[in-house]
Amino acid sequence: MEAIIDVVMPVFAIILSGWGCGRMGLLGDGASQALNGFVYFAALPALFFAAMAEVPLAETLNLPFILDYMAATAGVALATWAIGRWRFPATGDALGLQNMSALFSNTGYMGIPLLLTAFGPVGKLPAIIATVLNGAIVMAFYIAVVEFQQSAAEHPLKVLRDAASGVVKSPLVLAAALGIAWSALGVPVPVFLAKFCEILGAAAPPAALFAMGLFMVGKSFRGDMSEISALSALKLLLHPLLAWAMLLLIPLDRDWSRSLIVLAALPTGSLVFVLSSQYGVYTQRSTGVIIATTIASVATLSLLFNLLGVR
Fold first, then answer.
1. Which of 96, 136, 22, 112 is nearest to 272 (CA)?
2. CA 177 – CA 60 distance, rounded (Å)
3. What is the pLDDT of residues 270-295, one digit of tens each?
4. Which residues pair with 105 in a beta bridge?
5. Which domain holds residue 150?
6. For residue 244, what are the CA distances in angstroms to 112, 262, 280, 298?
7. Exposed, middle or buried: residue 220 (CB in 10 Å: 0-12, 13-18, 19+)?
8. Are 110 and 134 in contact (CB under 8 A)?
9. What pTM, to 2 d.p., does this model score?
């Protein structure tokens, strides 16, 4: 449990720091939007490119693991869509961000250090693969969903073109695609470029969390608590249960199986807030889900590690 607290508490402390600075008015109006823009257009693209360019494609093509992870994620997406459709109606582009809030694991900022702590070096690769899948597939899918819903075109083909254009123009998708292409070439990333991406990309997680804290100033989550609680339960309980169920269909060895379940049980990643803020939709409730799952994961991950025999 100490390892979990050591990872979770800094995340929460950064959010709290942003809220404190915003509450005291130290950074002026529009600070959250400006900081989020820096994360979206500069820091995250650098992080995505480096993460994908420096991992050989041969290492990321563990097909059974990929199938298990993506199938569990798709299962949560379907469950969230059903609940969001009938219990917590969300319309248009909000439906996509609501869905993403319940399944987008914090694999990079929390997953990699947690798996390294729990399982040693064998835990690093599953976390990296999950981060690649989140960045290259899951994120791109939800950008397409939001772009599709926000398109003002009337003709179906024009709507599809608008959605595809939004995905292609996204700096996050472009950076991920460029990183994968670079990896496929088998050419080492130049030292100066790797250092640039390392320094700039390192700013992305804390800046996103700090911007989230700034956004929270003056906000009340009371009216959204039932929805936030339901989405948090889907993320922390249903997601790992579906990952375990997938292992019955497509078995993995012990290390990869345990890593899969932990990755599915991680709290919601701050990238959901970055996207919701960028598109101006579902921002308050996605923030609530990120904070709620981050805090609750101290208990849920501790229990899970005990069930998996990790001490």
1. 96
2. 14
3. 889 888 988 888 888 998 998 899 88
4. 268
5. 2-307
6. 20, 10, 35, 20
7. exposed
8. no
9. 0.82
Encoded tokens for 51: 């993460």
Rounded to an integer, what distance in angstroms lies between the CA atom of residue 11 and that of residue 288?
14
CB 170 within 8 A of CB 40: no
Cα–Cα distance measured from residue 302 to residue 228, given in angstroms and rounded to the nearest whole number:
21
In degrees and rounded to multiples of 5, residue 220 shows phi and psi of: -120, 130
- Cβ–Cβ contacts within 10 Å for residue 33, how many? 15
Nearest CA to 308 among 64, 125, 123?
Answer: 123
CA-wise closest residue to 260 among 122, 101, 54:
122
Look-up of token digits 């609940």: 83
Whole-Å CA distances, 62 to 41, 103, 113, 157: 30, 21, 21, 35
For 234-255, write each residue's pLDDT tens digit: 999 999 999 999 999 999 999 9
Q: What tokens does 263 get? A: 């990755």
